[in-house]
Records
---
Amino acid sequence: MDENGVAEGEVLDFLCQARERDASFDRVFSSMCTRPHPLAIKAHQKFIETNLGDPHLFPGTKELEDSVIAMLASLLGTQNASGYITTGGTESNIQALRVARNLSSERNPNVIVPASAHFSFEKAASILGLELRKASLDKRYRVDITSVENLIDENTIALVGIAGTTEYGQIDPIEQLSHIASSEDIFLHVDAAFGGLIIPFLEEDHKFDFRLDGVSSITVDPHKMGASTIPSGGLLFRRREHLDQLMISTYMKEKQHSLTGTRSGASIAATYAVFKHLGRRGYKRIVDRCMRLTKIAEKRARSLDIDPVIKPVLNIIALSVQNLDEVVSKLEKRNWYVSTTIKPKALRLIMMPHITEESLRSFFDDLEEVISYVR
Ligand SMILES: *Cc1c(COP(=O)(O)O)cnc(C)c1O
């Protein structure tokens, strides 16, 4: 740190320069986050001082958190789930498995996740001392139920299903997982970090939520398809006692169930604002648009003789492109931000709300050119 402070203008100049080097969302097909809704930004700014690590100072903000949880619960098929706003899917997944572990008395606990699970489960397993068992996938990259059944033993403390996989946007057969969880009396956590704010607005009714009796907890991130500000994740439990497993008393005689101590209320206010403002109709409009762009992408890809790995279920399309590494590096040279999947290798495009029909068209024009060079 400098001995003497620097003038405000100079600091701001420096910040602007740094910010200019960041990607502009217009060319980003690789992110599961998007530009926050303008109202979310306004709300965030208003609540910038708030700290829900100290809720007795901020009862107003705390009430907003409770409202957000109630709105999420009703979207996820129940009137009375309990939960809190986390920093994102990673914290939610860690905390859900922490509850499952603490509810059991197994000495060598294991958890069964699909092979497609997000890497946050690796972190969770490492922190919580869990053995992570990976169930294989079927031809459409959904978890294979027989594989799950074969991995279960007396030390299994939880099953995980994914509603909206990170790589292909696939939805696991949660209904079948729920049957197994109920009949074997095992905790079932559904990771809907990405899908939780899309699936309820699709034409097709995919059951993945609390309408299924075996589902114990759900992760859903407002900072992804919710268009809220970062950090906003959601963690919901069907049963209040499960949330209470996370409660500790602080030295100020308050209760706390979050993983973090000090935590901003700003993104909670942002989430409240955007949920209230958009309502179900507003989200449906956003989701319809993202799905329409995904269809356009699929059609254009097929016209170039490129097949998607699976027929898109959500607004993610993974394309089986030849010479993938070379194609990606050429696309990156043209300032496109894309990502790739691992198994099978494919070009992964996410149709987030910041993508326009124009940018999609111009991306595919470039892809077409790049492919013709690489061939
Ligand atoms: C994004 C994502 C996560 C992790 O969420 P963060 O907010 O990045 O911590 C977990 N699971 C799935 C399925 C995701 O898509």
---
Amino acid sequence: MFFSEIRFLYPFILLMFSSHILKDHEAADTDTITLGNHLNSSATIVSAGGMFELGFYQPANSTNYYVAIMYKNILEDRVVWIANRDYPVTASAFFCIGNDGNLAIRQGRIIYMVTDLQLTNANVSATLLDSGNLVFRDENSSILWQSFDFPSHTFLPGMKLGYDRRIGKTWSYVSWRSSNDPSPGNFTLQLDPGPEKRIVILNGDEIYWRSIRPWGDNSNIFEFPPDTRMNMYNFTFVSESDTAYLTYTLYRNDTISRFTLDATGQLRQVLWLENKWSLLNSQPRHPCDVYAYCGANSSCSNVWSSFCSCLPGFEPSTAELWNNGDFKDGCSRKNDLQCSMEGLGTSEDGFNELSNVKLPQNQLTLEVQSMDECRSACSSNCSCSGFSYTNRNCSTWSGDLINLQQLLADDISGTNFYLKLAASDLGTNRSTSNIRRAIILSVTVSMTIFGSALFIWQVKKKRDKRKGEGQDLLTFDVTMSPARTETKPAKRRRQVEHEKEVEIPLFSFSSVCAATDNFSFSNKLGEGGFGPVYKGKLLKGEEVAVKRLSRTSGQGWDELKNEAMLIAKLQHKNLVKLLGCCIEGDEKILIYEYLPNKSLDCFLFGTNAMLGLSWETRVRIIEGIAQGLLYLHQYSRVQIIHRDLKASNILLDADMNPKISDFGLARIFGGTEQRATTRIVGTYGYMAPEYALEGVFSVKSDVFSFGVLLLEILSDRKNTGHYLSNSLNLIGYAWDLWRSNKPLELMSTDLRDKYCPNAATRYINTALLCVEERASNRPTMSDVVMMLNNELTILPFPVQPAFSNVGSGLDSSQSIPEISQNKLTVSVVVPR
Ligand SMILES: *[C@@H]1O[C@H](CO)[C@@H](O)[C@H](O)[C@H]1NC(C)=O
Ligand SMILES: *[C@@H]1O[C@H](CO)[C@@H](O)[C@H](O)[C@H]1NC(C)=O
Ligand SMILES: *[C@@H]1O[C@H](CO)[C@@H](O)[C@H](O)[C@H]1NC(C)=O
Ligand SMILES: *[C@@H]1O[C@H](CO)[C@@H](O)[C@H](O)[C@H]1NC(C)=O
Ligand SMILES: *[C@@H]1O[C@H](CO)[C@@H](O)[C@H](O)[C@H]1NC(C)=O
Ligand SMILES: *[C@@H]1O[C@H](CO)[C@@H](O)[C@H](O)[C@H]1NC(C)=O
Ligand SMILES: *[C@@H]1O[C@H](CO)[C@@H](O)[C@H](O)[C@H]1NC(C)=O
Ligand SMILES: *[C@@H]1O[C@H](CO)[C@@H](O)[C@H](O)[C@H]1NC(C)=O
Ligand SMILES: *[C@@H]1O[C@H](CO)[C@@H](O)[C@H](O)[C@H]1NC(C)=O
Ligand SMILES: *[C@@H]1O[C@H](CO)[C@@H](O)[C@H](O)[C@H]1NC(C)=O
Ligand SMILES: *[C@@H]1O[C@H](CO)[C@@H](O)[C@H](O)[C@H]1NC(C)=O
């Protein structure tokens, strides 16, 4: 196929028969190699800022040496470039500028030429830059050669992926043979030179993976997962007649990140975070993403154990291979289309609807006005094998259907695809299809009955178990716990009312110990309210979060019962799910679903802050929190006031959907009447004035906390940070900006204008309404949800918020202690 000439570098080995004597000296403490000095196998040169070093790299368990550029201060997986991938040397080799002025590796009498330039003047030098680029310059500092033009397996910021035909360059990346063998492997990452400019990974000469999105102004060509990470990278696409390449830079100079093509053909994008490489993205992620994994005319599913199946009306082209798990021959039609055997058949070809699929690759797009027009465009063209229609976009396919993927029912990203089939393969008989429907219906009904019976039996079994010993957490089936979605709230409510007591599994302490490796430090996720939180691993590999209530907390049992009962009753996609608990002796432990992305504060203010949340993610988080809180206040059976809503209590799932956690503080509370409490539980900075000062709380105190949280999410600033302006806190700062008619200066600089100003202004306005001094002036959560969503609502103008100036209440010098963890039996602070 089109690329086989991308082996790189200069495999010229010169045998020198003169007994040349090394008279040059060692290069030391420098970033440059000049004529006359050299690097031996234990010496390195280091870039000026100390980011990279160049020296000899010896793979584990190998006697081979390679001249490599490596991260200086990272010890794990540190090689980014290799000069002599195909020609390893031994420990006696030197890296130097040879007599003819070229960069070379010399081992005894053998010289491996790293560069092969015709030089007139040998006054040249090679400097390692902080970008990881080794540049070879002449005396006038013009670049003669640079390592960035001869990529290895790592795509660093500043490097290119693509080609420039004017200068005959191709920037492509070749995997290692194995993780300990840098010699060129099977996989190549490059830009497909076709008109669509997709990124492809080749396995040998065959396409292994291909980006679904063609080249475009949207930079998601690597198909990043749906969240934040794009904000760190500034991708640039250049496409001219003879030149097309992709390059990127990082917005922050303290970020260390790269792409590598690993020996298994995976393109991995990693970030150095908390002393390890964190994987941000990898492609292909699933077998179904591998190009033509199931061959032509088949469908792939990442959930079925066999992955591949033929499309309806098709059968495996080569049954033996297919049955042995080799799918590459794909499937062919059982019956030819009418279209292709003119006039012979008796009935017309038709279409079979495949619902909720990820569409095959290589579509052609037509502009049509209706579904029927799209259908007839496909029917009337013999080479058309199927079509899909959404929003007046008509896509058709011809010939092989590659990478059609069947999605799960709850995956909403799918579309419908209409597959052209011969009438005999269609099953269009009304009667049969009705019968079939009837059968499906009755099967479904009986399955449902059976399922409910099973569920009741399970619940009963659990109840019986409760009387005896705790269950084993290790063998617990996370998916068996009550359904998380509240698709049928009415039914659920009835069900809850039916049960006098909420059933949650009770686990044995020994199984909790086993799951958390005896609460080992390495499993500790953090310190939540009331005690540390650990990660627990179940036998099947599922993970749970284990909150161990601190023994010193006297009220622990109450809190536990409170929290356990409340959470078990609440089912909402924006609330963290309680899976069970463990009470043995002094131990009071709650088991929650595990959320991999930690809490929101990490992304706003903490170590993950450099990942920068995108505007879309922020909007999703804001809306999710609002929905979760609205549910707590209004739609759950009992009204629940959270009382400690804050960024660290918002957890994020793998797709960055927010889930509110820590209901231990919430109280069952009837009506909306305000209550006074002697026990204040909350966090300074988020507490409404009436709650902080008088212990009076209501749903409106949560609304206040939500307002603070909203400002924090928009600005990436803590409410209680230090402010340069006269404002005391974020609320005051936001208010000052609002009054000065420049509210958008509040927005996080990470967003860099990549947000919707109208929506942002509306959010700030809403937040300021939420933090008003008088609780009665604050909106309710249902008002808030409407304000956030409805662009047409005209919002009231906010008045001066609470805590926004020195006169109005608390300032940080007053003695409301930092009470993020612990309950405080309040000695009420009254403002003078
Ligand atoms: C390599 O050079 C360094 C000085 O740059 C020297 O200390 C070291 O002994 C040399 N190693 C060998 C194996 O020659
Ligand atoms: C190196 O060899 C040792 C012993 O043969 C083995 O235990 C170890 O796993 C090997 N390391 C690598 C990275 O292959
Ligand atoms: C080589 O070039 C540098 C400037 O790049 C100059 O300072 C130096 O004197 C030159 N050396 C020789 C031997 O010409
Ligand atoms: C460097 O610049 C000088 C003056 O512009 C020029 O004479 C000389 O040829 C240049 N050297 C190289 C190697 O290009
Ligand atoms: C992104 O990169 C391009 C090209 O390198 C540069 O022109 C542009 O200023 C960068 N954008 C930002 C916001 O840094
Ligand atoms: C990063 O950028 C900041 C501000 O532009 C600068 O002060 C700092 O020295 C830079 N750090 C590095 C490692 O380049
Ligand atoms: C690379 O290709 C060779 C020969 O085709 C094959 O034996 C080897 O398993 C392949 N390696 C990978 C990682 O696919
Ligand atoms: C897949 O179906 C298309 C269209 O019906 C057909 O042209 C093609 O030959 C089929 N591919 C295989 C491998 O049978
Ligand atoms: C076709 O779909 C694209 C995105 O999939 C959309 O941007 C475009 O507006 C659609 N075209 C029409 C005519 O709706
Ligand atoms: C039929 O479809 C093929 C590919 O889908 C296209 O190249 C061809 O122009 C179409 N023919 C007609 C008559 O539309
Ligand atoms: C359609 O129904 C007729 C008679 O009911 C039957 O003979 C025929 O096989 C059916 N065709 C299909 C595709 O089911």
